[in-house]
Amino acid sequence: MTEYDVKDLDLAEVGRSRIEWAAQEMPVLRQIAERFARERPLEGIRIAACLHVTTETANLVRALVAGGAEVVLTASNPLSTQDDVAAALVKYDGVPVYAIKGEDKETYYRHLHAALDHRPHLTMDDGCDLVTLLHKERREELREAFGGTEETTTGVIRLRAMAAAGVLAYPVIAVNDAKTKHLFDNRYGTGQSTLDGILRATNVLLAGKTVVVIGYGWCGRGIASRARGLGANVVVTEVDPLRALEAVMEGFSVTSMREAARVGDVFITATGNQHVIDREHLEVMKDGAILANAGHFNVEINIPALEALAVEKREPRPFVTQYLLADGRRLHLLGEGRLINLAAAEGHPSAVMDMSFANQALSVEYLVRHRDALEPRVYGVPEEIDRRVARLKLEAMGVAIDALTPEQERYLASWEAGT
C-alpha cells in the first residue's frame, strides 16, 4: 500500500484529467520522460521532492518515475497544493504524496518529515525547507543524500548562506539560476500568474489603478510589465540602484516605499525579504488598499503589525481577509500573505513550467551521473543543459534558427582580423 496523506482520493479522476491537460503544454518534459523511460538513468534513486503540488509538478514526478526513480512528494507551501492532483498521483501513479491545501504549520512539517522518512538520495526543493530540516533535525540521514536541486530564488539564497557557513552537506544545483528558468518562469510565469491570482481573488479592474510592485528582480519585472499591459499605473520600489535605474528606463515610476504607500491601490511584493511592507506603510495606505505577495514565504508583508492595527477582520471573499482599522480604513490581505498565484489561482502556465521542470529533470540526471565528482556547494545548471532545454523548446514551438557557418566560427575564434 502506498503511504500518503491527501485530502480525498475521490478527487483523483479530476486530477488525472487536469494533469493530462497540462502535459499537452509541456512537450520538452514529455520528450525527456520518453527518453528516461527507455534509458532508466534514475533506476533505484530515492528522491524526496518538496514542491508546489500542481499539474505541472505531477508531470515532472511522472518523468522521474519513468526514469526509474522512487519519488515521494510533499508540498512546499501550505496553500499551494491542488488536492485533486495529489489524489491522482497517489491513486493512479502510486506516488506517496503528503500534501493538503490549507494544512496548518504542524501538518506541513509533519509532511516534510514523512518525505524524509524515505531516506532520499536526492532532494528537490522549492524554498529550501526540506534541505534545512534535513540539515537541522535529521543529520543522521545526510550520509545517504548525495545531491539536490532548488527551484526558486528564496531557496537559492538560503542555500548559498548554508554553503558560506560551511554547513551544506551535499551539492545542490540552483535550477532557478538557469536562463531557461528565471528569464521565462520568473518573468513571464510569475508576471501572468500573480495577476491571475489577484484577479481571481478580488475581481477588481486594474486599469486606471496604481499598482505598486515592490522589488524589480525578474519576478517584479514580469509583474510590472503585465500590470502595465492591463492599464495600471505602475510604481516600482527598490533597494538596488541598478534595478531601480532599469525600472526608470523602462518607463515606470520609481520612488520610496514610504511615498508609494500613500498612493497605491494594489501592492505586490516580490523581494524574498521580510517586512518590505511594514507598519509605517500600513498606517498611511488608502482605504481599500489590496496587499498581495508573489514571494515564496509569507514574511514580506508584516502580518503581525497588520493584526495589531486592526480592530476587526472578516473574509468578504475566498482568499481575501479584510482588516478594519481604528480610523475606519479597510486593508485587504490576499491569500494569508502567501504566494498569491498558487493560493488563489493555479500557478504558472504549463508552457513556461515545461522549461523549469525540464531543467529539474536533467539536473537530477546530471547529479546521478556526476555524484562522485561534485563538492558540497551550490552549482549552476550546466550550460549544455540550459542550451538543450532552449533548443528543445524552440523545436516544440516550430521555431527555426540559424547556425554559424564554419567561416563565421573561425572569425569569432580569431583575433588577427582588424578594421
UniProtKB/TrEMBL annotation:
<comment type="pathway">
    <text>Amino-acid biosynthesis; L-homocysteine biosynthesis; L-homocysteine from S-adenosyl-L-homocysteine: step 1/1.</text>
</comment>
<dbReference type="InterPro" id="IPR015878">
    <property type="entry name" value="Ado_hCys_hydrolase_NAD-bd"/>
</dbReference>
<dbReference type="GO" id="GO:0033353">
    <property type="term" value="P:S-adenosylmethionine cycle"/>
</dbReference>
<dbReference type="Pfam" id="PF00670">
    <property type="entry name" value="AdoHcyase_NAD"/>
</dbReference>
<feature type="binding site">
    <location>
        <begin position="152"/>
        <end position="154"/>
    </location>
    <ligand>
        <name>NAD(+)</name>
    </ligand>
</feature>
<dbReference type="Pfam" id="PF05221">
    <property type="entry name" value="AdoHcyase"/>
</dbReference>
<dbReference type="InterPro" id="IPR020082">
    <property type="entry name" value="S-Ado-L-homoCys_hydrolase_CS"/>
</dbReference>
<keyword id="KW-0378">Hydrolase</keyword>
<feature type="domain" description="S-adenosyl-L-homocysteine hydrolase NAD binding">
    <location>
        <begin position="186"/>
        <end position="347"/>
    </location>
</feature>
<feature type="binding site">
    <location>
        <position position="54"/>
    </location>
    <ligand>
        <name>substrate</name>
    </ligand>
</feature>
<dbReference type="GO" id="GO:0004013">
    <property type="term" value="F:adenosylhomocysteinase activity"/>
</dbReference>
<feature type="binding site">
    <location>
        <position position="185"/>
    </location>
    <ligand>
        <name>substrate</name>
    </ligand>
</feature>
<comment type="function">
    <text>May play a key role in the regulation of the intracellular concentration of adenosylhomocysteine.</text>
</comment>
<feature type="binding site">
    <location>
        <position position="126"/>
    </location>
    <ligand>
        <name>substrate</name>
    </ligand>
</feature>
<feature type="binding site">
    <location>
        <position position="341"/>
    </location>
    <ligand>
        <name>NAD(+)</name>
    </ligand>
</feature>
<dbReference type="InterPro" id="IPR000043">
    <property type="entry name" value="Adenosylhomocysteinase-like"/>
</dbReference>
<feature type="binding site">
    <location>
        <position position="181"/>
    </location>
    <ligand>
        <name>substrate</name>
    </ligand>
</feature>
<dbReference type="InterPro" id="IPR042172">
    <property type="entry name" value="Adenosylhomocyst_ase-like_sf"/>
</dbReference>
<keyword id="KW-0520">NAD</keyword>
<dbReference type="GO" id="GO:0006730">
    <property type="term" value="P:one-carbon metabolic process"/>
</dbReference>
<feature type="binding site">
    <location>
        <begin position="217"/>
        <end position="222"/>
    </location>
    <ligand>
        <name>NAD(+)</name>
    </ligand>
</feature>
<dbReference type="InterPro" id="IPR036291">
    <property type="entry name" value="NAD(P)-bd_dom_sf"/>
</dbReference>
<feature type="binding site">
    <location>
        <begin position="215"/>
        <end position="220"/>
    </location>
    <ligand>
        <name>NAD(+)</name>
    </ligand>
</feature>
<feature type="binding site">
    <location>
        <position position="186"/>
    </location>
    <ligand>
        <name>NAD(+)</name>
    </ligand>
</feature>
<keyword id="KW-0554">One-carbon metabolism</keyword>
<protein>
    <recommendedName>
        <fullName>Adenosylhomocysteinase</fullName>
        <ecNumber>3.13.2.1</ecNumber>
    </recommendedName>
</protein>
<feature type="binding site">
    <location>
        <begin position="294"/>
        <end position="296"/>
    </location>
    <ligand>
        <name>NAD(+)</name>
    </ligand>
</feature>
<feature type="binding site">
    <location>
        <position position="151"/>
    </location>
    <ligand>
        <name>substrate</name>
    </ligand>
</feature>
<feature type="binding site">
    <location>
        <position position="348"/>
    </location>
    <ligand>
        <name>NAD(+)</name>
    </ligand>
</feature>
<feature type="binding site">
    <location>
        <position position="238"/>
    </location>
    <ligand>
        <name>NAD(+)</name>
    </ligand>
</feature>
<dbReference type="GO" id="GO:0071269">
    <property type="term" value="P:L-homocysteine biosynthetic process"/>
</dbReference>
<feature type="binding site">
    <location>
        <position position="273"/>
    </location>
    <ligand>
        <name>NAD(+)</name>
    </ligand>
</feature>
<comment type="similarity">
    <text>Belongs to the adenosylhomocysteinase family.</text>
</comment>
<dbReference type="GO" id="GO:0005829">
    <property type="term" value="C:cytosol"/>
</dbReference>
<keyword id="KW-0963">Cytoplasm</keyword>
